[in-house]
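User: quick one, sequence for these tokens?
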């Protein structure tokens, strides 16, 4: 159930950050010693592999960002519409949390590109890649409540609270499964 209490979004943010930022342990098969195997499989040395992976990350962000920016722009216009005043307290609170999650997701997902420019030719490509990957995952984690929150507010306004809650729960499960659970299966299998 969606809560408009300020502690709830902060608690979710902290939980997402703790889960995603816990990257101290190497991922299955990705220890430093395993890099020689990667070199044999791809024919790339460590520097070439890191350059390619950084380019892949930035290209993935190019796909994600237009949708996030469109959602953010849409949310920025909603309070100026005539019927915004018709939202109840829960819907207004959910809208505000949605707006904040969208702003945070936008900042997190744009950060790797900005850092790429700021740290151009500074010799910290591997660090940029690791940080960019982490920021992207956290940004996607914030994008889930942003997208689901927008659907909650709209469906609550049109169809009522029960429908909004059911749709929201189903969407949360769908996003969690598609974006996080399925990829983590491969991470655990070492594939």
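Assistant:
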């Amino acid at each position: 159930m969606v809560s408009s209490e300020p502690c709830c979004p902060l608690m979710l943010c902290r939980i997402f950050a703790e889960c995603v930022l816990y990257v101290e342990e190497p991922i299955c098969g990705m220890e430093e010693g395993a890099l020689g195997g990667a070199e044999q499989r791809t024919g790339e040395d460590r520097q070439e592999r890191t350059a390619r992976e950084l380019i892949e990350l930035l290209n993935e962000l190019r796909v994600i960002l237009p949708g996030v920016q469109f959602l953010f722009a849409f949310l920025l216009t909603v309070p100026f519409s005539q019927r915004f005043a018709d939202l109840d307290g829960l819907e207004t609170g959910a809208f505000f949390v949605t707006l904040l999650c969208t702003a945070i997701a936008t900042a997190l997902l744009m950060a790797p590109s900005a850092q790429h420019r700021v740290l151009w030719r500074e010799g910290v490509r591997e660090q940029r890649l690791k940080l960019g990957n982490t920021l992207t995952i956290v940004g996607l984690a914030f994008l889930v409540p942003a997208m689901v929150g927008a659907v909650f507010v709209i469906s609550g306004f049109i169809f009522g609270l029960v429908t909004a809650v059911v749709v929201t729960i189903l969407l949360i499960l769908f996003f969690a499964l598609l974006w996080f659970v399925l990829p983590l299966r491969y991470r655990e299998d070492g594939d």
